[in-house]
Amino acid sequence: MLIPPQLVSVLQRHIDTFGAAEDGRLFFSECGGVVSSSTYYRAWQEARLLALPPAVVASPLARRPYDLRHSALSAWLNAGVDPTEVAARAGNSVEVLLGRYAKCLDGRQEVGNRRIEELLREYE
């Protein structure tokens, strides 16, 4: 699976700066072990305070690190990326993906209608 060049650059900078664990993990404890979920959560809360304006910090936006995953998958689906591809990248089945994220496709009716009309014109 290919990843976007922008993400490759971010990951390369991270590795150049912090290295990687012996087993290849990008995030590891001071002793090289697995980072605990409570450590991730604390770091996330501090990062939100530094990166977001106060009104956004007070909102539920990106309250948990896992919210970024939801945001990314929703954005990919809304951009028109094939659900099979999004599911593969997310490590989910298409059924799980669409069951959880179908609501993010709301407002895409116009795009769907246009695509159906274009398809039907091919048969005229």
Features:
mainly alpha; 124 residues; 60% helix; elongated
Helix/strand-derived class?
A: mainly alpha
H and E string: HHHHHHH
The total of beta strands comes to 0
Overall geometric form: elongated
Beta-strand content estimate: under 5%
Distance between the termini: 38 Å
DSSP helix fraction: 55-70%
Low-confidence spans = none
Give the C-alpha Rg: 19 Å
Residue-averaged pLDDT, rounded?
A: 88
Largest sheet: none
List the total number of helices. Answer: 7
Write a structural description.
This protein is 60% helix and 0% strand. With 124 residues, it is mainly α. The protein has a domain at 62-121. Helix 5 packs across helix 6 (94-101). It is elongated and about 65 Å long. The model has no long low-confidence stretch (mean pLDDT 88).
Outline of this structure?
By secondary structure, this protein is an all-alpha fold. The chain is built from seven helices and no strands.
SSE arrangement:
Blueprint: H1 5-18, H2 37-51, H3 54-57, H4 66-78, H5 83-90, H6 94-101, H7 109-121
Helix pairs in contact: 5-6
